[in-house]
Amino acid sequence: MLRSSRNAVHLLDNTQVDDLEHALTDQLRSTGIKTAYVDYLEITPRREHIASVIGRLLNLAHTPYPPQDWTAFSEDLAALAQRETGLAIVVDNADPFLSTDKKTMLKLIEAFQTQLTHWLNQKKPCHLFFQMEKNDLVRRIFKAA
């Protein structure tokens, strides 16, 4: 399911989400894959920088990040590859993210891709998922992991 792959950024809509709750949740727990689940619509009203929200969920070293400092975020994700068996970042409600703050979304993807080789070189899974529409199954799987 989640494995080391160069196809590490995923855009998903609700038709692509199967009822894999138990299998995926068990895999995340048994393999120790670190997860961060962010509902974009929950952080928007608080005007939190998405990198800081993800960093806090993952206990990254330099959180919170200044809004324009994507380098520190990327370096912290790369350092995480040294101590974790895998990583899955999920951004739920990503369609409003894309339509209202495309520049930040692209910066997030760029920062994620910049550090990806640290995970791939160790053959560890590292994925960034954008769940375009809100999906309660995705929330249950990744928020609980």
- What radius of gyration results from the CA coordinates? 14 Å
What is the CA–CA distance across the termini?
A: 15 Å
- Overall mean confidence score, pLDDT: 85
The domain tally reads 1
How would you characterize this protein structure?
- The two termini are 15 Å apart.
- The radius of gyration is 14 Å and the shape is globular.
- The protein has helices at 21-31, 40-43, 50-57, 70-80, 94-100, 102-121, 136-144; strands spanning 9-12, 34-39, 87-92, 126-131.
- Residues 1-5 have low confidence and may be disordered.
- It has one domain.
- It has a four-stranded parallel beta sheet with strand order 1-4-3-2, with helices on both faces.
- With 145 residues, the protein is α/β, with parallel strands linked by helices.
